[in-house]
Amino acid sequence: MNATGQDDRKPHPYVGMWVTKDGYIRHELLPNGRYDEARGNRKSAYQGRYYLVGDHIEYIDDTGFTADGDFRDGILYHAGMVLYREE
After folding, report:
1. In 3-state terms, the chain is what percent helix, strand and coil (to 5)?
2. Residue 63 placed within a domain
3. Domain containing residue 73
4. How far apart are the first and last CA of the chain?
5. Burial classification of residue 50, based on how many CB atoms lie within 10 Å of its CB (0-12 exposed, 13-18 middle, 19 or more buried)
6. Element housing 47 (H / E)
7. CA proximity to 78, closest of 62, 63, 67, 66
8. Which of 2, 34, 58, 65 is most open to solvent, judged by the fewest CB atoms within 10 Å of its CB?
9. Burial class (CB in 10 A: 0-12, 13-18, 19+), 12
10. Within a 13 Å sphere around the CA of 82, how many CA atoms are in the beta-carbon half?
11. Spatial CB neighbours of 16, under 8 Å, sequence gap ≥ 6
């Protein structure tokens, strides 16, 4: 923390918005280890925690459902989906 109480640590490089090519699925990886997934017009369709180990991600949604994925060459491969970082 700095003198103003702000956290000076940089977020993990994978934190941010990841989107399918058609924009239908949107995963927002938050810096606090939570995620928020939107599907189509349904904002916050799924929410939960995520853990990163190297280039591997483990998801645990708030109902207890688990899933995983891998980051390769700047792309997130998750449950048969391909997600790209939204800039």
Report:
1. 0, 55, 45
2. yes
3. 16-79
4. 27
5. buried
6. strand 42-53
7. 67
8. 2
9. exposed
10. 6
11. 28, 29, 85, 86
Q: Does residue 62 sit within a domain?
A: yes
Enter the pTM of the model.
0.86
Q: How many domains does the chain have?
A: 1
Taking Cα atoms as reference points, which of 28, 26, 21, 35 lies closest to residue 66? Answer: 35
Assess if residue 11 is contained within a domain: no
pLDDT tens readout for residues 3-57: 544 456 778 899 999 999 999 999 999 999 999 999 999 999 999 999 999 999 9
85 falls within a domain: no
Pairing of strands 81-85, 75-78: antiparallel
Q: How far, in whole angstroms, is CA 36 from its chain's centroid?
A: 7
